[in-house]
Write a structure and sequence with these properties.
Blueprint (H helix, E strand, L loop, with lengths): L2 H11 L6 H10 L3 E3 L5 E5 L7 E4 L7 H17 L1
Antiparallel strand pairs: 1-2, 2-3
Helix pairs in contact: 1-2
Length: about 80
C-alpha cells in the first residue's frame, strides 16, 4: 500500500484528522484541478463532476463540513473508476 493510499484511507475513516494541505494533495492526485479564486477560498474542478468544490481556508485549515464534502466527492469518484 502506497503512502497516497494510506492517506486516502485515513481520510475516508477520519476526515477531520487531515489538514488542508493533505486534502489538497489527495484532490489533485485524484484528477481535480485547482482553479485560482479570490481571497482565502480555494476552488477545485473535476471533469466527471457537475459541481465545483470551493473550500475557504483560515489558519491553514478548513472546517469539518468541507472535509466531509470533499470525502463525499472523492468516494463518488472512486466508485466511478
Amino acid at each position: 500500500m502506497t503512502g497516497k493510499e494510506k492517506l486516502l484511507n485515513k481520510f475516508f475513516a477520519y476526515p477531520q484528522s487531515l489538514k488542508y494541505r493533505e486534502i489538497e494533495f489527495l484532490l489533485l492526485e485524484n484528477g481535480f484541478q485547482k482553479i485560482e479564486a479570490k481571497g482565502s477560498h480555494k476552488k477545485f474542478k473535476h471533469n466527471l463532476l457537475s459541481k465545483d468544490l470551493i473550500i475557504p481556508i483560515h489558519n491553514n485549515d478548513c472546517k469539518i463540513f468541507y472535509k466531509k464534502y470533499a470525502k463525499k466527492l472523492l468516494k463518488s469518484l472512486c466508485n466511478l473508476k
